[in-house]
Amino acid sequence: MAKIKPFRGYRYSLKVGPLDRLVTPPYDVIDPVSQEEYYRKHPYNVIRLEYGKIYPGDTEENNRYTRAAACFKAWREDKVLVPENKPAFYFYEQEFSVQGRRVKRCGLICRVGLEPYEKGIVLPHEETLPRHKEDRLALLRACQANFSPIFGLYIDKERQVEEVLRRALTCGGQAGLREPDVEFEDEDGQVHRLWVITRPEVLKQVEELFVPQRIFIADGHHRYETALAYQKERREQEGFPAGERPYDYVMMTLVNLYDPGLVVLPTHRLIRNLKDLKEDFLFEGLKEHFNLEPFPLASDYSNFEEFLSKMREKGARGHTFGLYCGKGRLYFVTLREEGALLFFMPEGHSPAWKGLDVSVLHCLILERILGIGGAERAEEKYLTYTREEEGALRAVDGGEYQLAFFLNPTRVEQVKLVAEAGEKMPQKSTYFYPKLITGLVINSLEE
Length: 447
Known about the structure:
Layout: E1 4-5, E2 10-12, H1 32-41, H2 47-50, H3 64-77, E3 81-83, E4 89-98, E5 101-113, E6 122-123, H4 130-143, E7 145-146, E8 150-154, H5 160-168, E9 182-185, E10 191-197, H6 200-209, E11 215-219, H7 221-237, E12 249-256, E13 263-265, E14 268-271, H8 279-286, E15 290-296, H9 304-315, E16 320-324, E17 329-335, H10 340-344, H11 351-354, H12 357-367, H13 374-379, E18 383-386, H14 389-397, E19 403-406, H15 412-420, E20 431-433, E21 443-444
Parallel strand pairs: 6-11, 8-12
Antiparallel strand pairs: 1-5, 2-3, 4-5, 4-10, 5-12, 7-21, 8-11, 9-10, 13-20, 14-18, 14-19, 15-17, 16-17, 16-19
Helix pairs in contact: 3-4, 4-7, 5-6
């Protein structure tokens, strides 16, 4: 069902400089301060392609998108970016620390055939927002390239794909893999390793292993939907040509659902701009379905990790959230009766969707009590997302936000069940950690 292909990816020439100064995280986690830092790091940093600056004097002829296209063209002409000699799959390993342990996660960087969601071959799990897609589409039109891969998941309990790739990388049958073609440590202490695989028999074998697969989008929904929109545009412009074109594919990094290094972290919610918000009203509304249990938060937040640990324990038994109202007022918010989901969650959704912590939070608390529904979330005026836990506490104490809601992580199996049911989770339901790096391999849609 899923169609994958090798490609001649563009990679930085080794003569340009150390890769840790040339790559960035994905655009959606880069704030203006970080953007400026990446600009200063190196004149060939990929930030100039993926997420260029906006200037007051920008015009239709000279803007962040046209400048990115000009850079991409010049860097290829000047051999800053060099194409692979042959079509390749890329075996990618990330080594990182999480919750006090060192972990490795591996993936396959390749082209994946674009399919509308309704075909059930590539499946989403989260809602998207129009504003972000407009930005990505403008960049794709200008540059005709994927600078960062979409993060996809596939199901391979026996880990056959990884076995084939690792076998292709062994040193003449000896134990261990051959030296990676690329290896570096980034600013966060993550180690990135990349092996280029070009042997035709291996490429064919991996392609065949994906024929019965479905792919679940873990991260990059906006970019995937942008790629679909761009494909439609190009087909219409070219009169729906016969045969395949490069724009019929998009670059992805595919990770096995059963990879031991697949880590999902939570994304928390910050509330602001609610007029006349009264805690008494909020607490009365919560008590209809939830139990509230105060937690004695230290003034320096030093015991907040203990709170999160207890929240995870409670979450293993039922739906539990954290609520911070400022000035040390921190609470566990636990759903009293699971039966409430049957009567008060919106109709037309599967049990898997209704059983998500984030669905319960959005439907029973944000919508029913605070009045933050789908339209308000899309407006991005009342709700902000964060992965910074202490930072969320400080933002409420500093008056920037009124409330913070803390969540436990969504389980990977829940992502699969919701996607298979043809549904989408609320936006920012998952945070697959760590993010994929941008600039390691680039997929040109002109070749």
